[in-house]
Design brief:
This protein is α+β, with helices and mostly antiparallel strands. The chain contains 4 helices and 3 strands. Helix 1 runs parallel beside helix 3.
């Protein structure tokens, strides 16, 4: 959909790839956000997306690291790949915020396609103030 030409599937895949990178933490406690799988099947096939989602959910249930553990996160912030110290909790918190951000984009795409869902919180951070509608 213009102006970005992205799809709902590409955003879902991107969200799941982010978690996949965290869950692929290696024995040196390194997380590499530059190593996303970018599987086009997940973008284009609901069954593949559901399979990937279920895999992420099951792997999240099995995290056996202390959330306060220091991990090294590799990412490219526009100036080349760099390594940064995080806690595992901060990496997961970033993934959550990142997910909400992409949900907002998905919500925008759906609105442009005249598709609505019955969830007024979708794409909004829980801390976002709610607009109160008045009869005026």
């Amino acid at each position: 959909m213009p102006p970005y030409y992205s799809s709902i599937g590409s955003h879902i895949r991107h969200i799941l790839d982010f978690y996949d990178c965290i869950l692929a933490i290696d024995s040196n406690k390194q997380i590499d956000f530059t190593a996303r799988s970018r599987n086009k099947e997940v973008e284009n096939c609901c069954d593949k997306a559901i399979e990937y989602l279920n895999s992420i959910i099951e792997r999240l249930k099995c995290i056996n690291y202390d959330l306060d553990d220091i991990v090294t996160v590799r990412d490219d912030l526009g100036i080349g790949a760099m390594d940064m110290p995080y806690t595992l909790a901060s990496a997961l918190s970033q993934a959550n915020s990142h997910t909400i951000h992409h949900y907002a984009i998905i919500n925008y795409i759906m609105s442009g396609l005249s598709i609505s869902i019955d969830n007024s919180d979708f794409g909004y951070n829980p801390t976002t103030p709610k607009l109160i509608k008045t009869n005026s």
